[in-house]
Amino acid sequence: MFRRFLLGTFAVSALAGTCAIAQEIKQIKSEIGSFDYSLLTAKKKIVQSQSIASEETAPGVAAEAVGPDQEALAKAAQNPIASMISIPFQWNATPGTQWAPNSLDPDAKHDKTLNVINVQPVFPFKLSDDWTLVTRTIIPFINAPFAKPKFDLTPAGETYFDGWRETYTFGVGDVNPTGFFVPTLEGNFTIGFGPTLSIPSNKIPLSNGKWTAGPALVGVYTKGPWVVGGLANNMWSFGGEDDRKDVNKFLIQPFINYNLPKGWYLSVSPIITADWENEDNGWTVPVGAGVGRVFTLGKQPINVSLHAYYNAIKPEIDGEELLGDWTIRTQVQLLIPTSKK
């Protein structure tokens, strides 16, 4: 019943949002030209920030590991294709973000903060003795810097555009489910592969307005205190709003985790992305690391981590970098190990 309740809750969240575009934006676009606001948030990079460093397990971690073996549970929380239910709540904050290039708004400055809270439920389903299906759904709640057009009247009573009123917009972003088919393998190496999908669920700038899909692949090597691997996917648009830009985006996330005594661990898990449709520079390359710990609160195992990444290479719009220099990633993850049969 608990699993059914969780699945129902996240299914409702996944359907939240609307594909409507704000009327005033349509009006001003007809007067001053078309502008793709969805790029401003560098949203895909953050929304797909699937905190691999906090959703991991060597497949089949048993409930007995919760109490006496924190190291085993920590490794379990570091494997994105583990046979363990987990519910991460991840907050990504990028201060110093600019809402638009100065070619659009000369008054725009790097004085805003892009906030994204990802709810990322992970559920494994045993298909047979040889295969497990691990599903991961990212539901982003985004608070993005945005602006609304200001209009005024001339002495003759004619309406004219009078700049932008900078503000924020909040809502559910594109929902991203992924399914990994994981074969049962001997040894320290595990792989998973399957489809990933992005569902447009809201308006500019929270959504790119396109249905996208593509292949996803993950590999994990676990030995001693180390959990090392990587995840990669590429998605292409195949439907959605006709007036929105086509999507062709790549993501790769290598991860290195070194586990310490008493559930502590060190982690490097940058999320590197490329927007192949960006005519300027579409790459985002962060550099940084983090620390985390797995512990129990009552009988509930919890994984908490804190990461900081310097965005060494940032995407450009009209030749200008809009994303802030640093992204801080904080996560609290509920772990629900499976029981041995």
Give the helices and strands, then pairings.
Elements: H1 2-14, H2 23-32, H3 43-47, H4 70-76, E1 84-97, E2 112-119, E3 122-126, E4 131-153, E5 159-172, E6 176-183, E7 189-198, E8 210-223, E9 226-240, E10 248-259, E11 264-268, E12 272-275, E13 283-297, E14 300-313, E15 316-317, E16 320-321, E17 326-337
Antiparallel strand pairs: 1-2, 1-17, 2-4, 3-4, 4-5, 4-6, 6-7, 7-8, 8-9, 9-10, 10-11, 10-12, 11-13, 12-13, 13-14, 14-17, 15-16
Relevant CATH superfamily? monomeric porin ompg
- Measured by DSSP, the beta-strand proportion falls in over 45%
Question: What is the arithmetic mean of pLDDT?
Answer: 82
| Corresponding CATH architecture | Beta Barrel
Structural class: mainly beta
The largest sheet, given as strand count, sense and whether it forms a barrel, is: 15 strands, antiparallel
CATH class value:
Mainly Beta
Ends: how far apart? 19 Å
Silhouette? elongated
Number of strands: 17
What proportion of the residues is helical, as a percent range? 10-25%
| Series of H and E elements | HHHHEEEEEEEEEEEEEEEEE
* Number of helical regions: 4
Low-confidence stretches: 1-68
Rg calculated over all Cα atoms: 21 Å
CATH topology heading: Porin
How many discrete domains?
1
Describe the protein's architecture and organization.
With 341 residues, this protein is mainly β. The longest helix has 13 residues. The strands form two sheets. It has a 15-stranded antiparallel sheet that branches. The protein is built from four helices and 17 strands. The protein has a single domain, classed as Porin (Beta Barrel), CATH 2.40.160.40. The chain is elongated.
